[in-house]
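DM from R.C. (forwarded with permission)

"hey, sorry to bug you on a friday — could you get me a structure for this? deadline for the figure draft is monday and I only need the backbone to look sensible"
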Amino acid sequence: MFRYAGDTRVSGASRPNRLGSDASGLRRAGQGRPLHLAAGWHGVAARWLVTVYILLLLLVPAVLTVPALGAAGTPALMVGLLGLAWWLGARILRSPVPGRAPASRGIRWALLAFTVAALASYVVATVRPIDGIELTAADRGLLMLASWLGIALVTADGLGGREVQVGTIGAPADIGRVENLLRVMVAAGGIVAMVGIAQFVTGRALVDAISIPGLSANTTLTSVYDRDGFNRTAGTSTHPIEFGVILAMMLPIALHFAVTDTHRNVFWRWLPAAAIALAVPVTLSRSALVGVLVVLVVLLPTWPVRWRRRAYLTLAVLAVAIFVLIPGMLGTLSRLFTGISEDSSALSRTDSYALAWEYIQRSPLVGRGLFTFLPEYRILDNQYLGLLIEVGVVGTVAFIALLVVAIRRAALSRRLITDPRARSLAQSLAAMISAGALGFATFDALGFAQAAGLLFLGIGFIGAVANSVDRSESDSAGLPLSPAQE
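My reply, with the result:
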């Protein structure tokens, strides 16, 4: 017998291991293991902070802010800023242990690269002639960036959990607590999805009844729009496009728990996934539908055959149900794609290219400043085009690299794990970021609190999974081999 780090199983006699020291000595010295902030009260604080962030981000209407701070005053954004302060403080107070860097270091470097690019664009904005309203927007952009950075870093480095299989060696990995927080996200996603369905049925905003002391709407609260005679819902989001995109991003995580949480009641584990899947069509958003398609393309090839068959059957049943229960809905959804050449929103996007190019040419490398291309100039409905204007080629490449690094890190974690549940989680997180990455091409997503916050939260969760796999490999390398492994 041998002992896992953090496990209750205790070995008999200690034998020399592959690092040339015994297991207890490795634990005392911490050699070969990176600094992780998930231990002790740091980990408890991080988990509570991420939990509060998720609930505030999804359940509080996105237009409710602290009046003095405007769009930068959402409760979730302030929690993200607190997260950055917590992470920096924890890093200062806890000196790194010599040894291998955390597996999330690639994500950290990608976050740093985008942050540096955004700061460079801010410097450019402050030294050029600039209107006061643009400078205020640039300042707000820095606060938002700091909040996104904070929640991503706290989530990546502050979580810690259950045992998975890495390679052929059983070792503890911090998947359990990651899953607990993701369950909170899925539950909150299921709630807002049901709110969206209720808005579609009743034609009422419903969330306008929410009143929180100290918060006020920084813009007109419109949660129900109209498209071809159907109510187009926005849930607690600012716009139906944002609502549809965040639903598509949460769908793979909801499906993960629906099929893997077999210890839970069937109704409760499938309810959030069903609500999210049903809410996507009522957003009447191309972005949401394409996001779901991306999720299925990423997930289905990795599922067992029986799961895929059930998924195809479920999609067919859902289509029939929509056809029967909501006459005309399928036709409206299909016209979102067949009539795209005549759609005003699609034409507006393509007509923006010429204007965007004029702004890009003025500062092609570092841009004119994050958030300084104001909506009154033009609504581009393409975040990547907006980034080219605001943070230039350097910042846009850095942002795309961040998305690629996160997706690749999730894929690598999945390859390193043999535990089916943990592999499913890693793939679901890759699908989440993939859906978000595509959604960002269809609207100015960084200007929408829920979409931007959820993307960086997902990146943080991928870092947490990567770190847990890294700890498993480190622990496995530093422990005595069992007789079966020798």
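R.C.: lifesaver. Residues 1-36, 95-100, 161-173, 474-486 have pLDDT under 50 and may be disordered.
me: no worries. The longest strand covers residues 163-166.
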